Amino acid sequence: MTTGFVRASLRLLGVQAAWNYERMTGLGMGYAAEPLLEDLKSADPARHAEAQIRSAEYFNSHPYLAGLALGALVRAEYDLVPGPQIARLRTALTSPLGALGDQLFWAGLVPAVMAAGIVAVVYGAGIWALLAAVLGYNVCRVATGVWALRTGLAHGAKVGSAIGSSWLPAAAQRIGLLAGLLVGIALPLASVWLLQAEHAWELPVAAGTITVGLVAAWTLGPRTNAVRFGLTAIGLAALLAWGLP
């Protein structure tokens, strides 16, 4: 299953590519599960056909932790767990993984990395701080995805207990505290830096960015958020920084 694990891990990176209102990320989960279910095809063709259908059913949770559910559900198929029990496991994992993922990434790691990047820029790191922030974030994201899939495959239907005893719940809580600390440090430093900026346009650009963010949040609602807008602003800042003397 080693080759299948690698292929499934890569497919999980795009688990939301087939998102739709009927099944949410279910089709993406089914696509990611396919390489892991190949061994079941020769061992039990009938079970394999049923497993393929079940793997693409409705699923809506945090995409970065979807591997926990995918691995657990695939392992449950190999363990010959009854179909209705697998369906209940799938439903039971939806909300906890969504809450943990939101807390760990959207409310924790993303603002922490952004704030750390801002502090580094203020102290002269320039474009390298932005690149390091993006690289560091993606390393954490990929490592978490690999761990999640491996953990799900190892524990199957008992994945809930494995999650509870793992590093994940404590990390999700602590990263939020770290994010609050870093954001609290970054905001006054960035404000002073902009007020003392050598380039006269930097302060108006910052004010304009904030204004655009507020207008986007007001008009687009849930289609935009601080994470998406913040990452977009960082990307534009990185492109702009390349042209600065």
Instruction: Please report which band the strand proportion falls in: under 5%, 5-15%, 15-25%, 25-35%, 35-45% or over 45%.
Output: under 5%
The structure class reads mainly alpha
**Straight-line N-to-C gap:** 52 Å
The number of helices is 11
Give the radius of gyration: 21 Å
Mean pLDDT: 86
The tally of domains stands at 1
Quaternary class: single chain
- Runs in which pLDDT lies below 50 for 5 or more consecutive residues are none
Please provide a brief summary of the model.
The chain has one domain (2-196). The chain is built from 11 helices and no strands. Helix 6 packs antiparallel against helix 7.
Structure, explained:
It is a single chain. The protein has 245 residues and is mainly alpha-helical. The chain has one domain. Helix content is 76%, strand content 0%. α4 (45-55) runs antiparallel to α5 (66-78), α6 packs antiparallel against α7 (127-155) and α6 packs across α11 (226-241). The model has no long low-confidence stretch (mean pLDDT 86).
Q: Can you lay out the helices and strands and say which pair or pack?
A:
Blueprint (H helix, E strand, L loop, with lengths): L1 H11 L13 H8 L4 H6 L1 H11 L10 H13 L4 H40 L4 H29 L3 H6 L3 H28 L6 H19 L5 H16 L4
Question: What are the main properties of this structure?
Answer:
single chain; 245 residues; mainly alpha; 11 helices; 0% strand
